[in-house]
């Protein structure tokens, strides 16, 4: 079972080290950084110092250029977005929602310290996790947010003594869904169903629909076949 923590656009080396420490005490070690401010952030002294003994998590961590690379092999994407969006995935607290994900391959996404998560990244997720805080002060340090989510996920998994059962059906990973939708977007433009100059929210809505459907790899293959057929029909000038 995959549990991955993804930090997007992180700007402070200390937060990376503190995140590694927060993960290790809850028994997790799959850390991926997407386009951090510093290319050598995992080796910076501040990161090593704040890891406080969790250096093996830093040693195993990966730096990638895109979110697609970071979520490869994952079924469910959980945004951590404290600010409500007018559109996007359902919002829930970790304690309410995480028990429903036991047995799935899960990635927890955290935005930059200054700006949080971008709307387009939140739209890709299956759920937006919100941590209950005081009404007049809801600002959480990045590593503190990681610690809370890691703790709640460990509780959902049954602590350290209970192993979750394997999922009965393996859904296609998030990268496969994103690639299929890119193929569909090209086809929808080709048949003039989607106007690239005024796309509105068609593609984010389709992303949410397929996230809910949780298609298998075989179903992704079929959907790509449909997109290919649409593109071929458009080239021939047939309806």
From TrEMBL:
GO terms for biological process: tRNA nucleoside ribose methylation. Keywords: Methyltransferase, S-adenosyl-L-methionine, Transferase. Residues 4-151 form the tRNA/rRNA methyltransferase SpoU type domain. It holds the Pfam family SpoU_methylase. It comes from the Bacteria. One of its GO terms (molecular function) is RNA methyltransferase activity. InterPro entries: Alpha/beta_knot_MTases (IPR029028), RNA_MeTrfase_TrmJ/LasT (IPR004384), SpoU_MeTrfase (IPR001537), tRNA_m1G_MTases_N (IPR029026). One of its GO terms (cellular component) is cytosol. Belongs to the class IV-like SAM-binding methyltransferase superfamily. RNA methyltransferase TrmH family. This is RNA methyltransferase. It comes from Ramlibacter algicola.
């Amino acid at each position: 079972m995959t549990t991955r923590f993804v930090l997007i656009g992180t700007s402070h080396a200390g937060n990376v080290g503190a995140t590694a420490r927060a993960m290790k005490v809850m028994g997790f070690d799959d850390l991926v950084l997407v386009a951090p401010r510093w290319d050598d952030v995992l080796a910076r002294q501040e990161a090593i110092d704040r890891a406080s003994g969790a250096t093996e998590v830093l040693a195993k961590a990966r730096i990638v250029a895109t979110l697609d690379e970071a979520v490869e092999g994952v079924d469910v994407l959980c945004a951590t977005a404290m600010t409500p969006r007018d559109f996007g995935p359902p919002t829930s607290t970790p304690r309410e929602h995480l028990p429903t994900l036991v047995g799935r391959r899960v990635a927890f996404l955290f935005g930059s310290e200054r700006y949080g998560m971008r709307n387009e990244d939140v739209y890709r997720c299956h759920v937006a996790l919100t941590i209950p805080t005081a009404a007049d002060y809801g600002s959480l340090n990045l590593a503190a947010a990681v610690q809370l989510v890691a703790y709640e996920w460990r509780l959902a998994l049954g602590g350290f003594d209970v192993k979750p059962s394997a999922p009965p059906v393996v859904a296609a990973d998030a990268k496969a869904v994103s690639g299929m939708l890119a193929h569909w977007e090209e086809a929808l433009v080709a048949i003039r169903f989607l106007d690239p100059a005024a796309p509105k929210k068609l593609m984010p809505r389709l992303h949410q629909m397929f996230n809910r459907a949780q298609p298998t790899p075989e179903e992704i293959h079929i959907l790509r076949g449909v997109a290919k057929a649409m593109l071929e029909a458009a080239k021939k000038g047939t309806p």
